[in-house]
Recover the amino acids of this structure.
């Protein structure tokens, strides 16, 4: 969506805000406006921010590119172009650790431009990068994976922890083992002193 298009509220002639379907006057009513035509089965109605999901968006030649990622639940990431669902990951993708690979991709029908979404995750966050024809137009900044084709969670190398991830997991495992062995020792201590 671009600045200057008509507000989606019927009868309003004001220009809409950047990355919005409504003007400034109607920003409180944005939940009542469909992102796309209601008849379209893939249309998405915006809702209140969900703490278990993330969203990124960018404008490209009058189109809105929107990416959502569920961090819990089914863990599905989705790519929308002007409210139409164009690609999504499998439900099990949330257990994989993306390292900058392309997880979502589509081609724009009228121009043939390729829209790719790269994801990168670590222990603390998930980042997404929106690219059109391999040029970043939105999202987060991070180093891309050398894999330049679309991948899924079954692709070799996807989901493997890096050096820092392995170190953190080792320290975490050591702490748990130490705690468990300490509890067992304390539980056996009265029997030893008898």
């Amino acid at each position: 969506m671009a600045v200057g298009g008509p507000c989606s509220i019927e009868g309003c002639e004001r220009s809409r805000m950047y990355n919005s379907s409504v003007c400034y006057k109607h920003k409180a009513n944005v939940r009542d406006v469909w992102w796309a035509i209601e008849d379209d089965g893939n249309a998405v109605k915006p809702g209140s921010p969900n703490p278990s999901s993330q969203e990124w968006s960018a404008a490209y030649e009058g189109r809105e590119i929107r990416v959502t990622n569920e961090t819990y639940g089914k863990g599905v990431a989705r790519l929308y172009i002007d409210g139409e669902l164009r690609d999504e990951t499998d439900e099990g993708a949330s257990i994989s650790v993306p390292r900058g690979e392309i997880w979502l991709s589509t081609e724009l029908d009228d121009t043939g431009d390729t829209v790719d979404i790269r994801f990168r995750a670590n222990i603390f966050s998930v980042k997404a990068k929106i690219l059109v024809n391999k040029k970043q137009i939105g999202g987060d900044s991070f180093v891309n994976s050398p894999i330049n084709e679309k991948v899924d969670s079954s692709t070799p190398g996807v989901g493997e922890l890096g050096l820092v991830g392995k170190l953190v997991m080792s320290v975490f495992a050591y702490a748990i083992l130490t705690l468990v062995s300490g509890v067992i020792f304390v539980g056996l201590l009265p029997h030893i002193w008898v």
